[in-house]
Amino acid sequence: MSRDPKYDILFEPLQIGPVTTKNRFYQVPHCNSLGHGRPLAEVENRRIKAEGGWGVVCTQEVEIHPSAEITPSFEGRLWDEKDIPPHRLMTDAVHEFGSLAGIELVYGALHAPNNYSRIAPMSPSATVIHGNYPIQARAMTLRDIHDIREWHVNAAKLARKAGYDIVYVYAGHDMSILQHFLKPHYNRRSDQYGGSLENRVRLTREILTAVKEAVGDQCAVAMRLAVDELRGEDGLRAECEGRDIIGMLAELPDLWDVNVSGWDNDSATARFEPMEGFQEKYTAFVKTLTSKPVVGVGRFTSADAMVSQIKRGVMDLIGAARPSIADPFLPRKIEEGRLEDIRECIGCNICVAQDMIVAPIRCTQNPTQGEEWKRNWHPENIQKAASDDGVLVVGGGPAGMECAMQLGKRGYAVTLAEATKTLGGRVALESQLPGLASYARVRDYRESQIARLPNVQLYLDNRLSAEDILELEIRHILIATGSDWRRDGIGRRHAFSIEGVESVSVLTPDDIFSGTKPQGRVLIYDDDHYYLGGVIAEQCRQDGLDVHLVTPDSKVSSWTENTLEQEKIQSRLLSLGVSLTTSHELLRVSEGSAQIANVYLNEHQQEIPFDTIILVTSRLPADDLYQALLPHQNRFKTLLAIGDCNAPGTIAAAVYDGHLAARNLESEVDFYEPLFRREMPDLG
Ligand code: ADP
Ligand code: SF4
């Protein structure tokens, strides 16, 4: 198959300064927590994107000097010559496929606590640094400003030596000294670098000019600018400073990479920015002010939306971070006319969360993400079946669907049995809730792939018992029957059943999924701390109910700090009129009334009346079937519980577990033992 001619424009080459990209697919810089700590994994992660057809493949942020380093994070590092070899591996890998390699050079300043170098951070003016680190940054002298210019130039020269084609000057995400200079919040200087916007832009202009002079003959110099901080008058605004800055520097860089700040706005989740191209309203003006190519992002996964961006003159290159994580082969699939094979990002930010917790990247949709080197997994290829054996997968949720699909691709004769009339398990249910519609993509992608695999037989509306399975005489059995929310309140705060729960009618998320409508005053007790408690509160408010959410944590949906959603969730719940009581645990429940206590001062207790109580605490594996089969284990070659049935977790964990089990079935490499390849420090 070949591509539809209407997508030809996406495959046109484009000159960027002294270099030319072969197409319009541009993997913008994005973190993956591999970086200098796991360089071989980093190289393979980027190499696969080049193989997948991205015309430009960029690094993550790359520190340029020890006075601005972000330990414990593992992003990129290019302090001196010693850091070049892993970068050279990366650029060689990207060039193998005729793609361009870009590097985002960063001086982190207020974003860099210097936990490794222990050098006091610097800032335009003396101020506190980001987060709640109890340290402050010192004000930069003119000598420091001179040094920072030099460090950018040195890093750009090192980048050129390492083989990069595009070198970034970065003022985005509130993570770079140049953005800090632009902002009056941080820049209270009275010299030529502070005060007027012209003065605040001065350092950016100087660095752009110096970097161009240093490497501009061979490398394109890209300017990454957050044109709006989405803080109204309290921050940079596209219609004011954003427009003026672009106007002042319009023709200086070879490429404008424009977005919104902070990271939570740039990488907004689908729950808060459901639409593809959501940044257009902020960045569309840029092309009217410059003749240089413009790249921007917006969780683009559809070829039509991409073409529209280019044809309408919004941007010249389609930038993507998350869509390239969910599907590194997105460009190739468009090129080959295989749109239905695209694994669309669901906008959940599990990828971001890994970076936030300083762990290697993972992705809900793409279980091979971050595993390319570690396990030698390729997102599009899987080893052939080792035998003609049949395989039964029980349960058509994320784990079962991924497992059945991959086993089907391996060539096994697969039977996938699902108790209900539809596939999808938890994603089919959760995607009905406010803001989670895109979660259905986890099902949709796999359902359409499975439908095209003649060797995968689907049996819907087919709840299997242990006897049924024993009768089938299939030798490989994978049980993916999911999990059930607990009714007893056991969770993170409570090791034992909450007093009184057995005597009242308690609802759980499973009841909400199956259509039970809460009534009257609703009390939600969230001891899970991920998204579901907050989403159910939102749903109940939309249904016009009085909602009171109680959580033992000091914030609602606290784990979503890692998906960059927590503040947005708390604001949304408050604006919807949900009553929030944080730092309180549920002590006991009786008909119509709950007693809660402050987790720090237990004697501070209060009664909360309710008509419906919903407990969102923790889940139990739905493993009755697996347990019933275990005594007959010797009748099978494989009997394995996977996904939530094995250990309830994220959707990403279930997909991964299904994938792992499919790879491991009759595999020469035992993916469970030895675990995986590790990168060891070079003791020389
Ligand atoms: P996971 O996230 O691990 O994939 P889910 O809870 O999303 O788990 O999906 C589990 C699926 O298994 C659900 O669709 C459920 O209907 C199905 N299921 C549960 N028990 C059986 C059974 N005995 N036979 C067939 N399907 C089952
Ligand atoms: Fe998209 Fe979620 Fe994958 Fe990130 S983890 S790329 S947001 S699907």
In short:
By secondary structure, this protein is α/β, with parallel strands linked by helices.
CATH architecture classification of the largest domain: Alpha-Beta Barrel
What's the helical proportion of residues?
A: 25-40%
Q: Tell me the Rg in angstroms.
A: 26 Å
Could you name the CATH class of the largest domain? Alpha Beta
Would you give an account of this structure?
- The protein is an alpha/beta fold and 684 residues long.
- It has three domains: 5-356, TIM Barrel (Alpha-Beta Barrel), CATH 3.20.20; 390-482 and 622-664, NAD(P)-binding Rossmann-like Domain (Rossmann fold, 3-Layer(aba) Sandwich); 485-620, FAD/NAD(P)-binding domain, CATH 3.50.50.60.
- 29% of the residues lie in helices and 19% in strands.
- It has 21 helices and 29 strands.
- It has an eight-stranded parallel beta barrel, surrounded by six helices.
- Helix 6 links the parallel strand 11 (220-228) and strand 12.
- The radius of gyration is 26 Å and the shape is globular.
- It starts with 13 loop residues before the first strand and ends in a 20-residue tail after the last helix.
